[in-house]
Amino acid sequence: MVFSVAAGERKAPENMNEKSKAEIWRETIAIMEEALVKVPEEKRAAYEQKIRQKMEAGKKLSGEEMNYLRVYQPELYQSALRVENARKVLRTKLQSCKSKEEVDNVVSVQTEVLRAMEGDPDKEYMAAMVRHEVDAFKKSKAYARLPQSIQEGKKKKKTPTSEKEIWKDGEKGMMSSNKMAVLGQMQVQCERISQMAASFVA
C-alpha cells in the first residue's frame, strides 16, 4: 500500500508497520506467558520459596517453574538457566564415561571449577546441582555396569576373543584325537593283512 505524503509532512519510517507488529507480538507473548504461570500474589512467596529450595537441593526445575521465574523473577531465572545449562553439560560428560575411574576424573574437574567460582552468587546452586547429578548417576544401572578402570574395560572386551581361541584349541584337540584314532585303526588293519598274508604263504 502506498501513501502520498504532503509537502512539509514528515515521512513515516518504512519499517514502522513491522516494528509495530513486533511490539504487538512481544506484548502478546508476555501476556500469554504470564497467564500460563498465573500465581495469586498471596501464594507467590511460598511458590518462590519452593523453587529456591529445589535449586538449593540441586534438583531440576520444571518448565512451569522456569517460566514463573522468567516472568516474575528474571534475575533468579538467569541463575536457574545457568545451572540448567551446566547440568546438561555435566550429564553428557558422565554418560560418556567408559569407566568409574573416568567418572571420578569428571567429578574432580567439577570440584576444581567450583573452587574457582569463589564469590560467584550462583556457586551454591552449582555445587548442589553437581552433588545431586553425581549421586544420581552413581546410583544408576549405567554406572554399575562400568568397569573400575579403562584397562579393566579393555580386558573385558578381549574376553570373548580368548573364549573363541579356547574353542578353536578344543576343536584342534578333537581333530588330533580323531586322527590318532584313524591311525590306530589303520595299524590294526595292516597287522590283520600281514597275518593273512603270512598264513596264505605258509
Task: Summarize, please.
This protein has a domain at 21-152. It contains 8 helices and no strands.
Descriptive account of the structure:
The chain is mainly α. It has a domain at 21-152. It is built from 8 helices and no strands. The protein has helices at residues 16-36, 41-56, 63-72, 74-96, 100-115, 123-138, 141-145, 150-201. Helix 1 packs across helix 3 (63-72), helix 3 packs antiparallel against helix 4 (74-96) and helix 4 packs parallel to helix 6 (123-138). It is elongated, with a radius of gyration of 39 Å. The relative contact order is 0.06. Residues 1-14 and 159-177 have low confidence and may be disordered.
Count of beta strands: 0
The first-to-last residue Cα distance is: 132 Å
Mean pLDDT: 77
Assign the structural class, choosing from mainly alpha, mainly beta, alpha/beta, alpha+beta, or little secondary structure. Answer: mainly alpha
Elements, N to C (H/E)? HHHHHHHH
Rounded Rg: 39 Å
Strand portion: under 5%
The percentage helix is over 70%
Q: Treating each run of at least 4 consecutive H or I residues as one helix, how many helices? A: 8
Please give the largest β-sheet. Answer: none
Shape: elongated
Q: Could you name the ranges where pLDDT drops below 50 across 5 or more consecutive residues? A: 1-14, 159-177
Strand and helix map with partners:
Blueprint: H1 16-36, H2 41-56, H3 63-72, H4 74-96, H5 100-115, H6 123-138, H7 141-145, H8 150-201
Helix pairs in contact: 1-3, 3-4, 4-6, 5-6
